[in-house]
Amino acid sequence: MFQDYYKEEGFAFILLIVGQIHHYVAKAVRELRNNTISNHDALLMARRLKLSLRNNIWNLHNTRKKELDILNNLRFIPKMCIKVNA
User: Which residues of 22-55 are buried (b: 16+ CB within 10 A; e: fewer)?
Assistant: First the structure.
């Protein structure tokens, strides 16, 4: 139903980026060599991380050590605290 060339190109670009993200997540999960974790599980773990901004500092909340260890093995290492230069 796309009739606008630019909408089609934008949608194709979004699909390209989604495909690349999926590829890298799947590759990292395979390298874990853990049959109990799927790509979906890894993305849900990352999604559950909550950030809050207080006094120009982003703080990471709602973290479980087990999930942080898994994300660390996936080479995604979130910082617990990030100062924002205002």
Answer: eeebeebbeeeeeeeeeeeebeebeeebeeeeee
Domain that holds residue 77: 5-83
Strands 81-83 vs 50-54: parallel, antiparallel or unpaired: unpaired
Q: How many angstroms separate the CA atoms of 66 and 41, rounded? A: 13
How many domains are there within the chain? 1
- What are 47-85's pLDDT values in tens digits? 777 777 788 777 777 777 887 788 778 777 666 666 666
This model's pTM is above 0.90: no
Structure tokens at 30: 């395979």
Residues 6+ apart with CB under 8 A from 43: 25
